[in-house]
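User: Hi! I have a protein structure encoded as tokens and I'd like to know what sequence might fold into it. I'm fairly new to this, so please keep things simple.
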């Protein structure tokens, strides 16, 4: 990082380069995959068609490249909610309105879940302290529903087994899921499930590629997106059909 820092409240230089992640505007794609282990970031980047940037600073390892024509960034944030919070805050200073999907591994409570099953989290129980600096304890940590539905659709189209909507707990210890954890280990889980190499990452990138239309947005042809229209399409419906239930997200999925 070169040049003086703007202030203690804005730890970036005149270029906008962020102090902890050592990234500046233009170096981060709007589609971002977050992982904890830096080795997972390397494995994901190894599936890119091309890598334009590799940067390591402190515990943060970042790759920006392209996957099937889409520009993507993957970052290893290290373990814990605190380091993830720093990464998310500084990434948002580098790119406008990014979509972030957190990928990791976790334990499971349901006896029918197997090693390597993929889980798509809808929310997290906040058992850590980092988020208390932003919202009160009772505020729910819930993922963007359009991203959740795009993930479910991508998993279904990729033939990934047991893509289950559900909740998880977030805590600061090693091996615990973090706030906003997407619940998909993009490399290890695919290996454990015997899936073709890279199919989990393709599913993630397909989800990131989905247009996230919300009620009131201007849809194709000037049509307004109705409640249930985009959701129905993301869940596999057509022509603005009513959205499916949580249990309809993917084969074998169950409503929570």
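Assistant: Happy to help. Inverse folding works backwards from shape to sequence: for each of the 256 positions I chose a residue that suits the local structure. Here it is:
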């Amino acid at each position: 990082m070169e040049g003086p820092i703007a202030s203690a409240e804005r730890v970036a230089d005149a270029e906008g380069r962020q102090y902890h992640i050592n990234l500046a505007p233009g170096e981060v794609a709007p589609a971002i995959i977050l992982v904890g282990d830096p080795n997972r970031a390397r494995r994901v980047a190894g599936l890119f068609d091309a890598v334009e940037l590799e940067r390591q600073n402190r515990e943060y390892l970042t790759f920006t490249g392209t996957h099937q024509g889409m520009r993507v960034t993957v970052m290893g944030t290290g373990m814990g909610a605190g380091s993830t919070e720093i990464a998310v805050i500084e990434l948002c200073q580098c790119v406008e309105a990014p979509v972030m999907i957190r990928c990791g591994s976790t334990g499971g409570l349901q006896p029918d879940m197997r090693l390597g099953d993929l889980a798509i989290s809808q929310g997290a129980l906040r058992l850590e302290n980092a988020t208390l600096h932003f919202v009160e304890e009772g505020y729910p940590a819930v993922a963007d529903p359009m991203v959740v539905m795009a993930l479910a659709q991508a998993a279904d189209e990729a033939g990934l087994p047991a893509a289950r909507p559900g909740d998880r707990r977030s805590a600061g210890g090693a091996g615990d899921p973090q706030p906003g954890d997407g619940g998909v280990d993009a490399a290890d889980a695919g290996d454990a499930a015997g899936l073709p190499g890279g199919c989990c990452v393709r599913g993630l990138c397909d989800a990131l590629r989905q247009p996230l239309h919300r009620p009131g947005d201007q849809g194709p042809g000037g049509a307004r997106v109705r409640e249930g229209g985009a959701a129905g399409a993301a869940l596999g419906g057509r022509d603005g059909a009513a959205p499916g239930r949580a249990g309809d997200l993917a084969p074998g999925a169950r409503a929570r």
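A useful reference point when you look it over: The chain has six helices and eight strands. Feel free to ask if any position seems puzzling.
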